[in-house]
């Protein structure tokens, strides 16, 4: 069998938004907040990851890449979970209007918000992309979102989706995986 180098993957969580700081369901067009722009500008990525940089098409991810002064290729698989009719709304607003629906979702957040995408669909979407890049034997960085990173961990480590909800994925944190015959988690690193 031929010796292979490992594919090294960094999943970098997009910078913070108002929804991520105050509790809510982000929309794809939600911008970084002021402190997140500053933090993203101070976030450094090893140069070896610059050639294979992929990014979600959500505004927060694109603004993260821009603040880091990098260029990335948009990758549909990295899109944040679709929150359906709750997108762009705070937990408080949804609670006031649909308390039973929100309580049902909070009891089982792997289900979808009304008209949204369930977490198993996110896992399938990101899993297909991870399977495609697994054997590239290159350093790769993907700037995406906390839910997508949790789904990636479920796929790569064969974790139950519900258990991934206990993993804190903070804005600008890095989840590092490698692939050499199988995916391995190397580290979870918060932004300093």
Summarize the structure.
With 192 residues, the protein is of the alpha/beta class.
Written overview of the protein:
The structure is a single chain. The N and C termini lie far apart (41 Å). Helix content is 36%, strand content 18%. It has eight helices and eight strands. Strand 7 (174-179) and strand 8 (183-189) form a beta hairpin. The model has no long low-confidence stretch (mean pLDDT 93). Helix 2 (34-41) packs across helix 3, helix 4 (91-97) packs across helix 5 and helix 6 crosses helix 7 (146-157). By secondary structure, it is an alpha/beta fold. It has a single domain (7-189), classed as Rossmann fold.
Unreliable stretches (pLDDT < 50, length at least 5) are none
CATH topology: Rossmann fold
- Distinct helical segment count: 8
- The fraction of residues assigned to DSSP E strands is 15-25%
Evaluate the radius of gyration.
17 Å
Give the fraction of residues assigned to helices.
25-40%
Write the SSE topology.
Layout: E1 7-13, H1 18-22, E2 24-25, H2 34-41, E3 53-55, H3 59-67, E4 73-74, E5 89-90, H4 91-97, H5 99-107, H6 119-133, E6 139-144, H7 146-157, H8 161-164, E7 174-179, E8 183-189
Parallel strand pairs: 1-6, 3-4, 3-6
Antiparallel strand pairs: 1-7, 2-5, 7-8
Entry keywords:
192 residues; alpha/beta; Rossmann fold; two-stranded antiparallel sheet; 8 helices; globular
